[in-house]
Amino acid sequence: MSDPLIRFEGLHKAFGPKKIYEGLDLEIRKGETLTVIGGSGTGKSVLLKCLIGLQEPDAGRVVFDGQDITGLDEDAFLPIRKRVAMVFQGAALFDSLTVGENIAYPLREHDRSMSAEDLHQIVKRKLELINLPGIEDMNPSDLSGGMRKRVGLARAIATDPEVILWDEPTTGLDPISTRVIDDLIVSMKRQLGCTSIVVTHDMDSAFRVSDRMAMLHGRRIVQVGTVQQMQQSERQEVRAFFDARKTDLNREARP
């Protein structure tokens, strides 16, 4: 069992009167894919943002690779953000840039001395990795939702991060595109050896990609376990969540 790469220790977070976390603890092991599940508004995405400095906890610590990164300023966060990349829910591509320019953007930010040829070769390799070769000159507006998500992934892995954060990666996608994204999450671990934290409400997706799952409820993590352990959980909160998802899926399947 590998040592934790990321630790959230005693996190407290509130937005005005709304309390998000009250003593949240969670560990993520190096090289695993951990999925965070829970109801809407429970703070799943906020957890990712605390790791990359877009949100700061009110109390507690975020530890990355042995370093307490809580409250670091922008300059101090730069090396962390080179090691941790986030795939945003809406892909967050720049519509004014081509696909190739979007993927090259973080490379230029991290190394302004990189040659145009080196940039081109990296962009080419990343597009091949997500199974979309040769679309460098296309515009984001010409892409399907699934393709935009994949290009967002290519941009996220342009700098070869050690950790990939996935914020609702399959939201709004059809079943075929969802399966493609799931396969990419699994292949990123296999090909790049990266650690992934996936925030999702899609249980079929979570079951396919996860090494472990963490259930966020009542402003804390109430259970962490393998897919099988979570499916067989006797905790009331976990059972109620899974049962509610089954009810939603059955309702959606009715003609």
Concise structural overview:
With 255 residues, this protein is of the alpha/beta class. The protein contains 9 helices and 10 strands.
Task: Write a structural description.
By secondary structure, this protein is α/β, with parallel strands linked by helices. The chain has a domain at 4-94 and 163-172 and 181-253: 3-Layer(aba) Sandwich (Rossmann fold). The chain is 41% helix and 25% strand. It is built from 9 helices and 10 strands. It has a 6-stranded mixed beta sheet with strand order 6-7-8-3-9-10, sandwiched between helices. A 4-stranded antiparallel beta sheet has the order 2-1-4-5, with no helix packed on it. Strand 4 (59-64) and strand 5 (67-68) form a beta hairpin.
Global Rg: 18 Å
In CATH terms, what is the architecture of the domain at 4-94 and 163-172 and 181-253?
3-Layer(aba) Sandwich
CATH level 3 topology of the domain at 4-94 and 163-172 and 181-253 = Rossmann fold
Main beta sheet: 6 strands, mixed
What's the arrangement of secondary structure elements?
Elements: E1 4-15, E2 18-29, E3 33-38, H1 44-51, E4 59-64, E5 67-68, H2 74-83, E6 84-87, H3 99-110, H4 116-129, H5 145-156, E7 163-167, H6 175-192, E8 195-199, H7 203-209, E9 212-217, E10 220-225, H8 227-231, H9 236-253
Parallel strand pairs: 3-8, 3-9, 6-7, 7-8
Antiparallel strand pairs: 1-2, 1-4, 4-5, 9-10
Helix pairs in contact: 3-4, 3-5, 5-6
